[in-house]
Amino acid sequence: MSSSLLHPPSHLSPAVALELSQSAPAVLRNVPSTNGTYSISSLWTAAETPELWITYEHLMLSCLRTGDEESAHLCLKRLTQRFGDDNTRLMALRGLFQEAVAKDDAALKQVLDEYESILTDDPSNIPVAKRRIALLQSLNKPTEAITALTKLVDASPTDAEAWAELSDLYVSQGMYPQGIFALEEVLLITANAWNMHARLGEVLYMAATANDSGSEKYLAESFRRFCRSIELCDDYLRGYYGLKLATDRLIETAPQASRPSKGDTGLPPPEIETVKRLNEVATAKLSEIVRKSAGGEAGWQGYDEAEVIAAKELLNRDAANITR
Amino acid sequence: MAQIPIQTIHRDPQLFYWILIPITVVMILTGILRHYATVLMAAMPKKQELPAIREQRSLLRGVNLRMNSHNISPAAFQARKDYLVNAYENGAFLKEPEKKGQAAPNPMTDPAAMEGMMGMMKGNMTMIIPQTLIMGWINAFFSGFVIIRLPFPLTIKFKSMLQAGVATRDMDPQWMSSISWYVLCIFGLQSVFNYLLGSDNAASQMQQQMGQMAPGAGAQMFGPGVDPHKQFRGEAENIAVVAHHYTLDGVEKRLLQSVKV
């Protein structure tokens, strides 16, 4: 079985997911269907490993993504054989399968009802609670999803995944202060996650562009968040992209920002000299990343293609402004 | 140099087939049996109720805030600090808020603690019962046999270890009695079980003894007999005295110094 099946499949590109799911029948044939723990034959067959079951789970997710419901069902069946019907994680997986094969909204509503009946029986079933929230989102009920998520993070406040999801939901509703709060919670759990620093920078930038009150403060913090994310991860494309956007805007609004902030506890606004130099650094770094990644140089691959294109776009826009 | 005469004892070769091999085989089979008995008897980890999860994780949240407070701005930290300290002092996250002031329950009367102890009892039982039976079996049938001669010389100190049950003063310590073979099997079959059952098997009693000496450190934090409200109050104090530093202070200058284009 391929090792890429051991990684969570959520961020695989569609091509890789398709390849994985096409390999599903072969994988399912090669791996023994039952691995009975208590049978005599387990004395001489290879011991079952956690990796096997992780493979099944990820294979199932890839298959559902590409519409191979038959293989997905087989994976689910084998997992159920091994772990039983009442395993919380499996209940969530089964719900996911039903969501995937559901034809219309009525069928999805039925799945939702099922989740709710499971949760009334056992409110501590966190995987199913998360599925229910995801389903509420896909049924386009963000307010209900937010209510359910706030309940979930109240019960389990160390769940970074839930906080991040909550922040995304708040941001999608335009409630930036709440989204920022939730992202700060994520950072309290995973202190050195540079992608989370950059994400917080993005949300702060959005908040700064969206409203007028306190937008300078948001912008300054957003700028510093991007700096921190680059400090934690060299050559981080998203960080530099955000840094460039934030510094551009800081330079634009510089005249107003230069007045002394009146008695608030936050950091002083960044010096305009530093901002300008960092803007140059970000521009240079972005063009370096775009050039080297397009040239396919060793050590410069692995950037997301869409992100590189977006960076190129940003640089072009900049160049157009100068020539004009 | 006086050569020490090599002791020769004429043994019935049948001893080898009818004592040495049976003891070894029985020991291996008991180990396998014990492994499966433990697997069968192992209770599923008990599901925690939602309030209990909330209690533990809320405490962890405070710990996280204390450890990673440098990531958030002073204002955000102050808001969280005020909220958490207040909630901790009032016992807002407690599993059983009405029991706030009471002393910790006696672990013997707490059903959750009893369950843990029952688990330990079961583990011990699977170890003790077969051990007693086999020891009795060997004592009854094979005591006093000298079964093999080790192929290397040993000093006299090994006599008590290798010749248990054979009270002969002058016999060379190379000779080994059946009971000593049994004891050797107990401690020496670990690698055989690893091969047969995988490395995390429950066949060997060595691991069980280790487990008893250092019961899971994670259980200590929320174990029975610890008053959660006291833990919360301690954590509230810890948070209240944290001196807050903000990493983003001066990050732009640090970055300018470190980054090279």
From TrEMBL, chain A:
Top-level division of the source organism's lineage: Eukaryota
Record domain EMC2 TPR-like: where: 113-207
Function comment: Part of the endoplasmic reticulum membrane protein complex (EMC) that enables the energy-independent insertion into endoplasmic reticulum membranes of newly synthesized membrane proteins.
GO CC list: EMC complex
Keyword Membrane recorded: yes
Its membrane topology: Peripheral membrane protein
InterPro entries assigned to the protein according to its UniProt record, in alphabetical order: EMC2-like (IPR039856), TPR-like_helical_dom_sf (IPR011990), TPR_EMC2 (IPR055217)
Annotated source species: Oidiodendron maius (strain Zn)
A Pfam family that the UniProt record links to this protein: TPR_EMC2
Protein name: ER membrane protein complex subunit 2
Main location class: endoplasmic reticulum
Compartments where found: Endoplasmic reticulum membrane
Classification via PANTHER family: TETRATRICOPEPTIDE REPEAT PROTEIN
Keywords of the record: Endoplasmic reticulum, Membrane, Repeat, TPR repeat
SUPFAM superfamilies, alphabetized: TPR-like (SSF48452)
Quaternary organization: Component of the ER membrane protein complex (EMC).
Recorded family membership: Belongs to the EMC2 family.
TrEMBL record, chain B:
Membrane spanning stretches: 15-37, 127-152, 179-197
Main location (coarse class): membrane
Molecular function GO terms recorded: membrane insertase activity; protein-folding chaperone binding
GO biological process terms on file: phospholipid metabolic process; phospholipid transport; protein folding in endoplasmic reticulum; protein insertion into ER membrane by stop-transfer membrane-anchor sequence
Compartments, record wording: Membrane
Topology in the lipid bilayer: Multi-pass membrane protein
Keywords, in A-Z order: Membrane, Transmembrane, Transmembrane helix
Key word Transmembrane present: yes
Cellular component aspect of the GO annotation: EMC complex
Keyword Flavoprotein: no
Family: Belongs to the EMC3 family.
Function: The EMC seems to be required for efficient folding of proteins in the endoplasmic reticulum (ER).
Name of the protein in question: ER membrane protein complex subunit 3
Source organism of the structure: Oidiodendron maius (strain Zn)
